[in-house]
Amino acid sequence: MSKYNNILFDLDGTITDSALGITNAVVYSINKLNNLYNLNLSIPNDETLRKFIGPPLNVSFRKYCCDDEKLSYKFIKFYREDYNDNGGLFKCTLYDGIYNLIKTLFENNYKIFLATAKPIESAIKIIEYFDIKKFFNGFYAPSIGGQIKNKLDVLIEAVEKENFDKSKTIMIGDRIDDIDAAKNVGIDSIAVRYGFGKEEEFKNASYIVNNAYEIFSILTK
């Protein structure tokens, strides 16, 4: 029998390669801020744009564009205008082997949960688009217009509401937010190299993998 029964998946960079939709929306929002408020914010380079994938948007904006809290919320508004209203959220693909991984875990009675800092409304649309919502037991994420939550907030809520046996629970993600949040709530983690994180972000991970097949091996051994 596997050590783990409760499997928490991050979305961006773990289930989906969402780089195109997210980075396009970041550029759209910065351009709109510049035009509407007569600003001169620089468009981040490609490497920095990819750092917006995963962490809360207001945190990334203040870190990489402008350390202004009020402006960061305007940034989020325009970002969502492009990402949600203009269809940017569907400019993504499933990583190789992920559909079969999640389906097989479901068929073998694992409990599967989504744990993302992306707004729940967008996250649900994406997993419905790829026809994998039916495999999930629950969804943990902030709501649009609600309190902005980081990954630690999300995992605390999930662990408390589901009353997980922490020794049988594991978080799968691609960024330091996923790995360190898992450590802080007392559960194991799998860091995936195929996403958007860098190797130095994985120092607190319980396991590091290259693909979905290696995830399956860890969960079933």
Report the total helices. Answer: 9
Shape: elongated
* Proportion in helices: 40-55%
Tell me the major beta sheet: 6 strands, parallel
Report the structural category: alpha/beta
The first-to-last residue Cα distance is: 8 Å
The string of secondary-structure elements, in order, is EEHHHHEHEHEHEHEEH
What fraction strand? 5-15%
The stretches of 5 or more residues where confidence is low (pLDDT under 50) are none
Strand order of the largest sheet: 5-4-1-6-7-8
What is the mean pLDDT? 96
What is the radius of gyration computed over CA atoms, rounded to a whole number of angstroms? 17 Å
| Strands, count | 8
Topology of this structure?
Elements: E1 6-9, E2 16-17, H1 19-37, H2 46-49, H3 57-64, H4 69-85, E3 93-94, H5 98-107, E4 111-115, H6 120-129, E5 138-140, H7 151-162, E6 169-173, H8 176-185, E7 188-192, E8 207-209, H9 212-220
Parallel strand pairs: 1-4, 1-6, 4-5, 6-7, 7-8
Antiparallel strand pairs: 2-3
Helix pairs in contact: 1-4, 3-4, 7-8
Fold and architecture overview:
The longest helix has 19 residues, at 19-37. The protein starts with 5 loop residues before the first strand and ends with a helix. The chain has nine helices and eight strands. It has a six-stranded parallel beta sheet, with helices on both faces. Strands 2-3 form a two-stranded antiparallel sheet. It has helices at residues 19-37, 46-49, 57-64, 69-85, 98-107, 120-129, 151-162, 176-185, 212-220, and strands at 6-9, 16-17, 93-94, 111-115, 138-140, 169-173, 188-192, 207-209. It has 221 residues and is α/β, with parallel strands linked by helices. The radius of gyration is 17 Å and the shape is elongated. Helix 1 (19-37) packs across helix 4 (69-85).
